[in-house]
Backbone:
């Protein structure tokens, strides 16, 4: 039972799933919203530009019907006139067509914003497969679209009939008006009719938009197994991450060991801890270049001896530096005096080995300030 529940798509889509769907062109779309916007734009365009548009078309028709006998029998002149009249008609309709073009582009962006997806343009044989088309029509989605189309057609038919009935007297009176006034009145009636039809489509769009949003979210729902798999892909396989961390630790360890031969001194516990310090005249303070415990400490001591790096026992100092300083950090300021004693002894020892003379006195017990030695808290 638990496996069945894990495979059921009951969880909301993750942000990654939504982003992938958007990249594939799968976003909520409402054709009813676009149809409503186009109808409303048509009504507004005819309301504001109808009189001028019809006047220009009237002038164009009048000009087209005026010709002489020569032009009537000359096919070349007729083609020239047809071309000229076509250009004039296009220019007359251009403002309205431009308005509709802008609305057709902007309306779909109201739900999902601007989107261009090459995946949506990719050729897919399934889209032209008749059997797949029939199966889509027979699906619940196809049945829902059919019911919605029937309701929309019925609503538009009722609103259209009521609009014609409302303007029946005005339509009859058009014949009694002067031509220019009649054209302007006709443009107003047509524009008003478009607005009324747009109002009916607004009702359809108001119901379709939330439905399309819900359906889009429902189609992208994920199962718990898919969510776990996605989280695993995002966070990485724990075993792979553990292996990467182990490899990173090994690389860091190798880099650290490569720095040990450059150390000025190695301070030990003597067996549990080892800290390699480096100092020269260019540094503000001694710096920790390697540190480790147990086996790592033993390896640091071994490398130091192989490369003639002084290895000194200062248990309290070794523990304090190991606890309070990381690799590549300068030593804490409270330990300056203690480390200075060690370095002074190292420099004296180096001078004695290179130039001879009086041997340095044995290194005295190094004392660190209270609170820095972790063993103090245990005791």
Residues:
């Amino acid at each position: 039972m638990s496996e069945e529940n894990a495979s059921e798509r009951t969880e909301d889509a993750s942000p990654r799933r939504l982003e992938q769907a958007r990249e594939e062109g799968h976003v909520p779309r409402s054709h009813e919203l676009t149809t409503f916007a186009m109808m409303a734009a048509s009504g507004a365009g005819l309301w504001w530009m109808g009189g001028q548009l019809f006047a220009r078309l009237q002038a164009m028709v009048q000009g087209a019907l005026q010709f002489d006998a020569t032009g009537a029998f000359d096919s070349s002149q007729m083609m020239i006139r047809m071309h000229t009249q076509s250009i004039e008609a296009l220019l007359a309709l251009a403002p309205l067509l431009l308005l509709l073009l802008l609305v057709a582009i902007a309306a779909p962006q109201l739900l999902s914003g601007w989107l261009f997806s090459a995946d949506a343009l990719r050729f897919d044989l399934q889209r032209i497969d008749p059997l797949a088309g029939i199966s889509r029509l027979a699906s619940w989605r196809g049945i829902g679209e059919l019911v919605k189309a029937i309701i929309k057609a019925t609503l538009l038919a009722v609103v259209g009939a009521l609009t014609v009935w409302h303007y029946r007297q005005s339509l009859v009176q058009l014949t009694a008006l002067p031509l220019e006034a009649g054209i302007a009145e006709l443009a107003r009636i047509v524009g008003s009719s478009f607005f009324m039809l747009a109002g009916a489509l607004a009702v359809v769009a108001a119901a379709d938009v939330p439905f399309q949003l819900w359906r889009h979210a429902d189609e992208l729902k994920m199962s718990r197994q898919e969510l776990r798999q996605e989280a695993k892909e995002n966070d990485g396989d724990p075993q792979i991450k553990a292996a990467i961390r182990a490899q990173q630790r090994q690389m860091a360890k190798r880099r650290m060991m490569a720095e040990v031969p450059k150390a000025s001194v190695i301070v030990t516990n003597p067996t549990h801890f080892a800290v390699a310090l480096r100092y020269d005249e260019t540094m503000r303070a001694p710096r920790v270049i390697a540190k480790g415990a147990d086996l790592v400490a033993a390896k640091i001591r071994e490398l130091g001896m192989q490369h003639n790096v002084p290895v000194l026992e200062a248990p309290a100092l070794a523990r304090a530096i190991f606890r309070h300083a990381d690799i590549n950090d300068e030593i804490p300021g409270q330990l300056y005096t203690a480390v200075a004693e060690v370095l002074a002894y190292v420099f004296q020892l180096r001078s004695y080995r290179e130039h001879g003379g009086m041997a340095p006195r044995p290194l005295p017990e190094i004392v660190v300030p209270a609170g820095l030695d972790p063993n103090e808290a245990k005791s």
